[in-house]
Amino acid sequence: MSGTYLGMPAFPKAAAESTQDESLRANLRHATHTIRDKRAKAVAELDDWQQLRAAGAAIKNRTLRHLDHYLVQVEAAVTAAGGQVHWAADADEANSIVTRLVRATGESEVVKVKSMATQEIGLNRALEAAGIHAYETDLAELIVQLGKDLPSHILVPAIHRNRSEIRDIFRREMEHWGRPAPEDLTDDPRALAEAARLHLREKFLRAKVGISGANFVVAETGTLVVVESEGNGRMCLTLPETLISVVGIEKVVPTWQDLEVFLQTLPRSSTAERMNPYTSTWTGTTDEDGPQTFHLVLLDNGRTDTLADVVGRQALRCIRCSACLNVCPVYERAGGHAYGSAYPGPIGAILTPQLRGVQTELDASLPYASSLCGACYEVCPVAIDIPEVLVHLRERVVEGGRVTIRGTRTTIRPAKGHAAERAAMRAVGWMFDHPTALATAQRLAARTRRLHPKRLPGPGRAWTDTRDIPAVPAESFRDWWKRTRPEGDPK
Ligand code: SF4
């Protein structure tokens, strides 16, 4: 791993390589099956789970419809509470705002609590280029950073590593970043956690600047919320003198009452817990308590464009629980790196091509990184119809058409390499529009059925290498209907 998503191959190529890695597949299978079984039990405890799910979807839909209003409310509330709000249209702007803010403190080190938004914009790389070292403090993120790796899962970024690999990384790398790992470090989980705790404590006590994300922003009070399991986040949010939070604009919820719904659904969907071990909330600044300077960077980076798409916008409801990853048969085999984005799995397959567009080969391949089995939709706590969005985006890839880019309606061309698919769909469309031609084709296919090949030639060969072509019936349905129903009998 190079530590960057730039220049990664399209999903089929990356997945073809990762599925050859038996240890990766074993690690993923073990972890996803354990989490998914626990989640199912935690969810089954609630009689009103489906109502909570519907409530979560409704709250998010309403908020997204009036996002302009709620964002202005957030800005006013954060400012009134002593914070400063910055608006970032894209990754470059967000990175330069954060770099400028850190430089203004005169510091060259920051501690970070896990934030997908900063992963999305490549903040660590941008800070490094400016001579600022960012230290990840979430345990799994620390493992990823020390291993010069990339996250492979939304919630468990080091899911692709087993215990002995983690021990080796700690032994090899910790000394280059701060306090070394103990010489006799074993792969016992408690020993690994203790080594990380001692290593990180040094960083927490020294850092003057903290950088965080947020799971939610409550508009009515301008309060940010982080939910986590380790308490490292809370150290990061309270010890430094300056706190900079980088948050996607879709994280807004209007009221505390709305938040209550997600504080029930998120822990059960993600870690199968009834409630979260640590829920930290902060509102602006408070005299002599916690960071004395607070900056909120509100990140767009393709979210407004996504909002303009009436089918695709439901991806913005996502609360990053990762339940869809843990049930996805494609993710389980390919792993998170194959998706070439901070957002892997089913949610990544619909979010990334909307945030980044489908112009590159990698992004155009993502809507196909699914078997459309629908398991992701079944588990999603905010009822995102992921298969519906996947099909919608496949149409965009194949046909091109009207989309919104940087707020302007524009027409994009079809992605390369889908000519055969496009021609086949047009032919099928024409056939369904002409019932007589369809009936003739069906009869012809029925009469010649014994001559049909078992494998397709040319580009279709790869498809039939792993599937049988469905047999054509001896008689079409409409012919059977005519034969078995007397003339004039509609039943
Ligand atoms: S799409 Fe749904 S299931 Fe997947 S991470 Fe987001 S909220 Fe969770």
TrEMBL record:
List the InterPro entries hit by this protein, alphabetically. 4Fe4S_Fe-S-bd (IPR017896), 4Fe4S_Fe_S_CS (IPR017900), FTHF_cligase-like_sf (IPR024185), Helical_ferredxn (IPR009051), LUD_dom (IPR003741), LutB/LldF (IPR004452), LutB_C (IPR024569), NagB/RpiA_transferase-like (IPR037171)
Q: Where is the Lactate utilization protein B C-terminal domain?
A: 393-483
Residues in 4Fe-4S ferredoxin-type domain copies:
315-384
Q: Does the keyword Metal-binding apply?
A: yes
Q: Where is the LUD domain?
A: 73-298
Record's keyword annotation contains Manganese: no
Alphabetized UniProt keyword annotations: 4Fe-4S, Electron transport, Iron, Iron-sulfur, Metal-binding, Repeat, Transport
Which residue ranges run through the membrane? none
Q: Which PANTHER family match?
A: LACTATE UTILIZATION PROTEIN B
Q: What is this protein called?
A: LutB/LldF family L-lactate oxidation iron-sulfur protein
Q: What organism is the protein native to?
A: Streptomyces sannanensis
